[in-house]
Design brief:
The chain has 1 helix and 26 strands. The protein is mainly β and 348 residues long. The longest helix has 4 residues.
Length: 348
Amino acid sequence: MRTSTLIFAASVSLAAFANAQSLNEYRLWPDTVSGATRVGIPATEAGDVTQRFDQGMVRGVGGYMAGTPGRLNGWRCTIQDTDRTTGELFSLAVIADDPANPGQPDPTNDLIRTGNVSTPSDTMNTGGVAWLMTITLTTPADVLPATGSYHLAIGLSASAEQSMWICTYSGTGNGDNPRAGAPNLTYGINRTTPALIAAPSWTSRIYALTENPTLVGGADIDPAAQRGPNPSFGVAGVFLDRMRGDGIAIRVRDANSPGAIATTFIGFLGFNPSPISLVGIAGEIHLTAPLVPDAFSTTLDANGDATQILLPFGHTVPALGSLQLQTVVSDPVTGAAKLTNAVELNDA
């Protein structure tokens, strides 16, 4: 697997929103990029670059009612094209987890896949470009498993010009820095010569878009071990390193509720296998009682974002183990309340 040098010559965001609601990203990304890659898929062959969202680390993305799949409104990703004068075809998908090999994508089971989409062609300029692509569904699809693992995917065509932005583990340079033994979340699927290629400790820049508010767990990392912006919301953020004293951080997003109050609750008994809905609160509760009530509150900014460090680096808690978090976003004027997805952080 080789990563190419990044091209920052220009970027463009293309969107065709299905309705008036603003969309929120759910992503596993450390806000820094290491390179671009096809994850071992030869340039003469087609395949998918995937990003795993494991049932052990997130539940209920896009969830609006207990017992139903989460609602997907679209995807956002970054595609690198070494020749901007010609468009390149790609597709976007959600791929089921392989029941025979948990944690790996099932190449035979697309939960949803778009038709081929082309990157723009820019005949007024030459050279490479990184395209920030936002693709939304005309009709949102209820396809995100509420309690199961799945994989977001970008289908690359057979083209030496096309690759996907990724962030890799880095011991000294720019990248991500999870604890040793963190599970693999990125795979390449060769569709021409069938093969599954693992990319340990990599994250792919592909996000799910949903109308629902989102919660991402992260880590406040020792400055000596930071490989990008801190707190980290990549693999290092999900899989904390107890030995270096990583703390806990969260990021809440609700572009439809700037100025709202975000209150995060914490549980220690795992995700609830049977999520429940409450009258008057949109969404579903994925935590198992008892909870730490009204644990942390903050106010969303003008963009509907808030980042909080809940437990700073250098804490003296000997072991966090696993803990689950979920946030209620409430309007201080109307009292309307919505639940984010739930996340689990683990420092084992």
